[in-house]
Design brief:
The chain contains seven helices and 13 strands. The protein is globular. Strands 5-4-1-6-11-8-12 form a seven-stranded mixed beta sheet, sandwiched between helices. The protein has helices spanning 33-43, 57-65, 84-90, 113-121, 177-183, 193-197, 220-228; strands at residues 2-6, 27-28, 31-32, 49-53, 73-77, 100-104, 107-109, 129-135, 143-147, 153-158, 167-175, 205-209, 214-216. By secondary structure, it is an alpha/beta fold.
Length: 229
């Protein structure tokens, strides 16, 4: 299964750390975050990878060129950021009309990707994608989902005060060819995956809840939390 890793973020909330280091390369216990992703995904049989770059892109290029994954990675530089949906839509053909992963690579994630893929294979027939979810201690800072008894999303609340629950979108998705085809149609101008895509597929998104570590390291406090595990 192929994967697109979104790694072009500016990391403004992590400054001064990200003044000189791109967010996707901040170290977690001595290992760059992007390296953790590539190692864990490869061990789960996932690849090849497409990674977008923007901020301090040459550092990402240098890292990939020196990594064991260089032959499995296609780097795509964005002089102007396309947005999380825009990058996906620009590279739909990368998935070769098969199921594929879309990942926000600024998360620290130790989930079981083989179990995630199995959940997607066994999803309800009407579901066009599978979203990784987790329990959060800070619901207002996340996209919160409401799910039915089968695990299908029936409501989505993006970073709202007092959302109904604490099951959060982990920003890791398996997308089916059926969903990719729909993105080629009326949604081909979408920019933000959470705001522009998810709302159009309520009732057609399956979920897989991980109980392993999944942390958005976008803030200093969350980054320190990731280092503590």
């Amino acid at each position: 299964m192929r994967a697109i890793l979104l790694a072009a973020g500016l990391g403004t909330r992590l400054r001064p750390l990200t003044n000189t280091t791109p967010k996707c390369l901040v170290p977690i216990k001595g290992q760059p975050l992007l390296g953790i992703w590539l190692e864990r995904l490869t061990k789960a049989g996932i690849g090849p990878f497409l990674i977008n770059t923007h901020y301090l892109a040459t550092q990402v290029e240098t890292f990939i060129e020196a990594s064991p994954y260089v032959k499995e990675v296609k780097l795509v530089h964005e002089p102007n950021l396309h947005g999380t949906a825009g990058t996906l839509i620009s590279h739909l053909d990368f998935f070769q009309d098969e199921d594929g992963l879309l990942i926000h690579a600024d998360n620290y994630c130790l989930a079981d990707f083989k179990a995630f893929q199995k959940a997607h294979i066994n999803r309800p027939s009407e579901c066009l994608m599978t979203m990784m979810i987790f329990r959060t201690e800070d619901p207002s800072s996340c996209g919160i989902v409401d799910i039915d008894e089968r695990g299908v999303v029936i409501g989505f609340y993006e970073k709202q005060n007092n959302p109904p629950g604490n099951l959060a979108n982990g920003a890791v998705y398996i997308l089916s060819p059926g969903l990719l085809n729909k993105l080629r149609g009326d949604l081909n101008t979408a920019q933000d995956f959470s705001l522009d895509i998810i709302k159009n597929f309520i009732g057609h998104i399956f979920t897989y809840q991980t109980k392993d570590i999944l942390i958005d390291i976008g803030t200093q406090s969350n980054y320190e939390k990731a280092l503590s595990f």
